């Protein structure tokens, strides 16, 4: 395959999150989350981009997830927690209920060290309010759209990735820095 640069150029910074909108039959609607430039949207396959988050208190959008059960719902995790010189602290989790046009900061994650670096988000395919986060503090689960959280794994390891079994959301795998797969 030949790779082609599609933007949003250097304006967005390091792109860490990407969603291809499954309801766009042309697959030309994408959302990009960047480590220091916020969240961007294209509807023409990357030819032009529009910033969706100029007014957010934190632009370190390191991960994005769209709910399969309700594609109007998008979650954005902030904080680039992969270590190194360019690490950017976040301000918790943000949620959009209108496909990214407006964003609300999930109040339970504000000023909370557990959510300063959100590395991955997964959403139950049957319920947009069941959300799991991989963070530098562990794995956290909400069953109420982020109003409250339960620590599911918190053993001192940075959780850098989190995926679900495509056939059974109750089976999940995480990549823990310096430990391996859990």
Helix content: under 10%
The outline comes out as globular
Q: Main beta sheet: strand number and arrangement?
A: 4 strands, antiparallel
Give the end-to-end Cα distance, rounded to a whole number of Å.
Answer: 32 Å
Any low-confidence stretches, pLDDT <50, length ≥5?
none
The radius of gyration computed from the alpha-carbon positions, rounded to a whole number of angstroms, is 15 Å
Q: Overall pLDDT, averaged? A: 93
Query: Helical region count?
Result: 0
Secondary-structure class: mainly beta
Task: Please report the total strand number as a whole number.
Answer: 15
The proportion of residues in beta strands is: 35-45%
Order of helices and strands: EEEEEEEEEEEEEEE
Q: Identify the strand order in the major beta sheet.
A: 1-2-3-4
Keywords:
4-stranded antiparallel β-sheet, 182 residues, 15 strands, mainly beta
Q: Could you please describe the fold and organization of this structure?
A:
It contains no helices and 15 strands. The chain is mainly beta and 182 residues long. The protein has a 4-stranded antiparallel beta sheet, with no helix packed on it. A 4-stranded antiparallel beta sheet has the order 5-6-7-8, with no helix packed on it. A 4-stranded antiparallel beta sheet has the order 9-10-11-12, with no helix packed on it. It is globular.
Short description:
This protein is an all-beta fold. 0% of the residues lie in helices and 40% in strands.
């Amino acid at each position: 395959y030949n790779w082609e640069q599609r933007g949003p150029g250097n304006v967005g910074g390091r792109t860490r999150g990407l969603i291809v909108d499954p309801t766009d039959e042309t697959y030309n609607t994408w959302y990009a989350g960047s480590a220091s430039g916020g969240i961007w949207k294209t509807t023409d396959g990357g030819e032009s981009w529009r910033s969706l988050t100029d007014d957010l208190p934190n632009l370190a959008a390191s991960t994005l997830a769209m709910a399969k059960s309700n594609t109007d719902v998008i979650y954005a995790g902030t904080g680039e927690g992969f270590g190194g010189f360019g690490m950017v602290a976040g301000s918790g989790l943000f949620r959009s209920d209108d496909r990214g046009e407006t964003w609300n900061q999930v109040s339970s994650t504000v000023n909370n060290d557990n959510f300063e670096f959100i590395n991955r988000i997964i959403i139950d395919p049957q319920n947009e309010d069941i959300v799991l986060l991989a963070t530098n503090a562990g794995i956290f689960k909400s069953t109420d759209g982020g109003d409250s959280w339960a620590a599911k794994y918190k053993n001192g390891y940075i959780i850098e990735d989190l995926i679900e079994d495509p056939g059974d959301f109750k089976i999940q795998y995480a990549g823990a820095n310096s430990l391996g797969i859990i």
